[in-house]
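Please go through the sequence and fold tokens given here and tell me how the chain folds. Record follows.
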Amino acid sequence: MEFLELLRYRKSTRKFSDESVPEDQLREILTAANSSPVGSNMYRDVHLTVVRNREILNQLSEAAARRMQDREKMREIVGNMPEGKLDLEVFDPFYGAPLVIFVSHRRQKVQPGIEFSNVACAATLMHLAAANLGLGSVLMWFALESMREIPELNNTAVLKLPDGFVPLIGLAVGHPARDIRARELREDRISVDFL
């Protein structure tokens, strides 16, 4: 697919079918991550964890469900929320995706901040690879941020990461519940200065 055409089909999918992602498509997505630029070529500082186990995803959801109860904090993050009772029993920050790929990075002392660039590059290329395959995906931050905000519900240990690594972003991947339609590309979302 031509690149700008691919961008027309790239979107954040927030409702997935329960159809699994075939292994060959998962391999293509992981290859995209391995093709991403990494600062100082330090690929050993980046780690991917593919989670298909719903029990693990449910454990990782606990802090996000708790944080959703803090309506004032949620208004700061997303603006006005609908009033009424939140159904936390069915709350899923992963939107029912059959798999989530977590991108983790070794804690940094020498080049603090580079970890965010590295994981963003890997996650974005996986997001584009999923779109190219006709899959839906959405970048995930809320569940991980919630666990950092509520340390007693930090269940990231279930990811069994190598020592010194911390998960910074996730990508939920699957077949979208609705067909993805092309969208119009815009040039005015991000301000630009020309010097």
Notes: The domain at 13-77+90-174 is CATH 3.40.109.10 (NADH Oxidase). The longest helix spans residues 114-132. The mean pLDDT is 91. The first strand starts at residue 46 and ends at 51.
